Amino acid sequence: MLLRAIFILFSIYVVGLLTTTVAAQQQHSTQYFSNEDIEKYKNPSDNKTPKTKTRAVETKKRAEKTKEQKGKEYWCKRATEYKKKIEKAQEDIEETEKKLAEIEGNPLPDARSKKAIKQLHNKLKKSKKHLRDAERELSDFEDEAYRKGIPPGWLRCQFDW
């Protein structure tokens, strides 16, 4: 009987011990913190950001912006050069065709005009070849820009300075 009483008392003790442990764990795990608690325990050094770090970030941003700006200028200038070549070739073709039309419109061609017509036809062929070459060069340049991931607006000089 004594053994039974000791066993019962020991069981009550263990159950009580487990109950208080579980209650303490529940109380501890359900503790919440608010922003006020964070402000209460905040260190004064938490508000400071190192000046050297912000300067370095600003310098890096400025350098990237400058690099991008130079890239825009480079691609814009090169594309403009190719477009000017095309325009010049087109102007040469128009001018030659106009001269050719004037000479061929003459009802009485002479030996000089036949020679001039032949020269103008040769010049027209060369001008058309220059135009094709300039257009091909521009196309190759655009392909290069595409492969390098350059935005098409940079080639058309469409960006905010």
SSE order and pairing:
Blueprint: H1 2-29, H2 35-40, H3 51-104, H4 111-147, H5 152-155
Helix pairs in contact: 3-4
Summarize the structure in words.
It is built from 5 helices and no strands. With 161 residues, the protein is mainly alpha-helical. The chain has a domain at 75-161. Helix 3 packs antiparallel against helix 4 (111-147).
Short overview:
It contains five helices and no strands.
Q: What fraction, in percent, of the residue positions are helical?
A: over 70%
The rough form would be described as rod-shaped
Q: Indicate the low-confidence ranges by residue numbers.
A: none
Q: What is the string of helix and strand elements?
A: HHHHH
Secondary structure tally, helices: 5
Taking the sheet with the most strands, its summary is:
none
Category from helices, strands and their pairing: mainly alpha
Mean pLDDT across all amino acids: 82
Distance between the termini: 99 Å
| Tally of DSSP β-strands | 0
Please tag this protein with its features:
0% strand, rod-shaped, mainly alpha, 5 helices, 161 residues, 80% helix
